[in-house]
Predict the 3D structure of the following.
Amino acid sequence: MKIVTNEGLINRNKKIGQVATFSSLAVLAVGFFMAWKPETMNYSFTALIVGFILSQVGIYFGTRFVRSPTPVEVLNQKLKGLGEKFVLYHYKTKVPHLLIGPAGIWVLSTYFQPGIISYDSETNRYKQGGRSLYMRLFSQETLGRPDLETKAHIEETSKYLQKLVEGVQLPPVKAAVVFVSDKAKVQVENAPYPTMHVDKLKEFIRRQVKPDAISEEALQALKQALPQE
């Protein structure tokens, strides 16, 4: 499998995460000490708010680009040996992770949240359980709406690729919701998109390799049009 990675973007975002995290700690410390003096109380609240915002920025970039193993590192490791006809793109297209090959075109929506992951077909929502009260109060990010995010990724990728290889008939873009944390236990049924732990992703992709998954013309056109490095 060939891997094409936007190293420049990853390194930039890694620095943003590190700077934001350290800056938030400094600003929060200043705000805390200001709170002890009545004359600087108003400045204290401002500092605490700014520090909190910086901490959220640090968390967002930190979980994706700083804390190892990152989603990029996990996908590279778990999909290793998939096959020489596959190409995995990290931050080189309209979505963070795109896989093309004999299995077709796949958007890989990665999530790092731990706990028990399920899907409620009545509310049409993914759920994250199995966390303590402490983790709920101080967890880094909530699960959000993987279904809506993945749908948007599919639509954006479809438009992008069709414009990129105009005139070539492409198969529908598909997507998988992938949890990369070793502390995640995926128990999902009836979700709108295939949802699994990253440990099962390679075997899942191999099962999608079918004669009608993608034409050789479309596959070669995409490989030539998409970034090479």
Q: What stands out?
A: The chain has two domains: 7-66, 71-225. DSSP finds seven helices and nine strands in the chain.
